[in-house]
Amino acid sequence: MLNNFIFFLFLKLIFSEPLCQEGEKNCLKCNYLTKLCAKCEKEVYAPDEKGGCLVGSKKCILGKNYCNECSVQGNKCEKCVEGYFPDENGGCSYTPYCDISERGECLKCLENYILIGESPYHSGNMIICKSLNSEDFKNCEEIDNERGVCSKCAENYYLNSVDFRCTKTQNCSESIFEVCTKCDKGFYFNKKENKCIKKDKNFIYCKETLDGVNCATCDDDCYMALDGKCSPVNFCSKVNEDNKCENCIQNYFLLSNYGNSLCTITDHCASGDPDTGLCLMCEENYYIDYKDGKCKLNNEDNEFKYCKKANGDCTECIFGYYIGEDFKCSTTHNCAESNLGKCIICSDKYHLGLDDICSNVEHCIYSNRYEECIECEDDFYYNIRDKLCTVAEGNFTDCKISNNDGNVCDECKLDFYLNQSDHNCYSNQDFGEFYKCERTDSNGQFCVKCIDKYYFAPENLRCSSINGCEKANEDDTKCLECNIYYALDLNTGKCEDNDKIEDEEKKYYYRCNRTNIEGKACEICMDGFTLDENGLCVDYENCKEKNDDGTCKICGNNEETYYFYCANNIFGCVETYDHFCLECNNILELNKCTKCMDGYALNEENVCVKNN
To answer: Cα 256 to chain center, whole Å?
Structure first.
């Protein structure tokens, strides 16, 4: 607001004629920035808006500038509207200790006061008149007028980093009447010497010492152990050289799962309340019994097997288990009675399947966690529309699950595939075009989905047991052609991943299309790669500079296509995601960087980052 006013005056200065002239209109001195009078004659009280000075009763006008009551002489406002204060110039301002205001906004404070406003250091950007004699400016040499804080202290005083006050104590962040009450982070207060001292291993969690030898007050969230040292652990009796708790007081235990980090009232506790010592969660294979707060074994053959929380009876089970009507944990919902985690009897209107899960579908043997049947008993199929296991007959004889409308089959039983042209199930056991098929295309002409652990060979249009195979032989014992992401090993007839190396002895699979008949070297490489004398596929195409021995020294990068390469002493150039990488010679992790470009260094994740 104040900045806008100054800007307005600046424009006024540029585009308007001078108003104030010294010696005229009772004005002794003009302000050539505002073009108003800066100092009026003695008997005249205040500048007016025309470059002169107000005289007598004309100075205070009821209703103007928020004034409710003028003085008897009519020179000053004695009572302003609620929320405003009379200023020294006869007007009203919403800022106490104001000298000159306009329309309620303070433009100048009284002597020994500083005007502060429109600053993030003051809540709500309030404009206030702050006393230069306040504690905030004691022993201050220079003031930041914009923020209203001290910016430089007098000699032998130090500026706090938090409250911007001056204190005699260096590295102090808060003080009261020149006495330090809080040191900067990494320092503790030595009351004997009245100074903040950098922490060492003996005072790492200390806030204040009285004698410089023993800590008197610990940092926030830290506690005094019985041996007189500070620790972030409550109920600690002894602290080791690393300032970690070594022993707890009597009847308390150190957490064993997470190192020396907490003392609790129970052994085998994994998480506890640092203030009360109560255990909140037990270690794996233990449950917490809130009757006594103890952690007890939950893997014994009793009613608390798989229990997580108890209060006499089990009230909560570990993940994947559910409370039954008998207050025991079972692998299924709606269980009435269980034994060692397996459901024996289901609740009313529920049926126990072969998977020990309770389902509300009769004749169901396997259900999912949502109580939906996924497989019915023999001679039944699951009708999704009716959510019932229905007698399998007619077109549903070999069906496992119907479609959503319940009128045709959508999934066949084991050893059968679905022909999507007539929605009937046929055997997939005979070797041929529908061998190990799960479903055909909509016309029933070829297989589009294979059963688990079988892969579709596009050129054969049938299922193969060889992953990545494009074309297999007639009896599916060997692959004749792999897709581009695999190398065909002519010795084994298998398709091997050619994008990475999991075994150094089989590095010839990298970027290879087909090996030799012995399967010991590559015979044909992928496009863009050259077969070298060792039977390996090497990328020389992207190499920009070579070493004396012929290996690549620097690879080129194509930033338009975002392909980046690093030099590898075996394969020439290797594609990487790190475009600041220069070398990557790890044989089992080809794109893992080992050397960065100038100005960059490897971090802990082997990524090149810019040097500080």
So the answer is: 28
> How many whole angstroms separate alpha carbon 5 and alpha carbon 15?
15
Helix/strand/coil for 353: coil
The pLDDT score that the predictor gives to residue 277 is: 87
pLDDT at position 481 over 60? yes
Q: Which of 221, 189, 193 is nearest to 208 (CA)?
A: 189
Q: Shortest CA distance to 413 belongs to which of 443, 381, 444, 384?
A: 381
Half-sphere exposure of 195 (CA within 13 A, CB side): 7
- 8-state DSSP, 539: B
**What b/e string do you get for 538-570 counting C-beta neighbours within 10 Å, with b at 16 or more?**
bbeebbeeeeeeebbebbebeeeeeebbbbbeb
Distance between CA atoms of residues 288 and 276, nearest Å: 16
Phi and psi (nearest 5°) for 395? -70, -10
Q: Which helix (H) or strand (E) holds 7?
A: helix 2-15
For the segment 454-481, the average pLDDT, to the nearest whole number, is: 90
Report the candidate in 96, 140, 90, 143 with the shortest Cα–Cα distance to residue 121.
Answer: 143
Cβ atoms 142, 151 nearer than 8 A: yes
State the chain's mean pLDDT as an integer: 84
Q: Which two tokens stand for residue 93?
A: 């301002």
According to DSSP, the residues that pair with 566 across neighbouring strands are 574
**Torsion angles phi and psi, residue 506, rounded to 5:** -115, 35
The band of 1, judged by pLDDT with boundaries at 50, 70 and 90, is: very low
Q: Which amino acid is located at 584 in the chain?
A: C
Q: Which of 45, 23, 18 is nearest to 34 (CA)?
A: 18
Cα–Cα distance measured from residue 98 to residue 468, given in angstroms and rounded to the nearest whole number: 84
| Cβ neighbours of 369 (radius 10 Å) | 11
Q: Which residue has the tokens 């999991």?
A: 502
Q: Which residue reads 């999704």 in tokens? A: 384
Helix-then-strand count for the chain, H and E: 1, 68
Tell how strand 206-209 and strand 187-190 pair up: parallel
Give me 7's structure tokens. Answer: 């800007």
Q: How far apart are the first and last CA of the chain?
A: 41
Sole residue written with tokens 């009757």: 291
Mean pLDDT over 471-492 rounds to 92
* Cβ neighbours for 250, distance < 8 A, ≥ 6 positions apart: none
Say if residue 479's pLDDT is above 90: yes
pLDDT of res. 42? 61
* Under 8 Å between Cβ of 31 and 40: no
Tokens of 264: 């609790």
* Tokens (6 digits) for 164: 């911007």
> pLDDT, tens digit, for every residue of 539-596?
988 999 998 888 899 998 876 667 889 999 999 999 988 888 999 988 888 888 999 9
SS3 per-residue string spanning 132-184: CCCHHHCCEEEEECCCCEEEEECCCCEECCCCCCEECCCCEEEEECCEEEEEC
Residue 611 has pLDDT above 70, yes or no: yes
Checking 189-192 for CB contacts under 8 A at 24+ apart, the result is 191/216
Threshold 0.70, pTM exceeds:
no
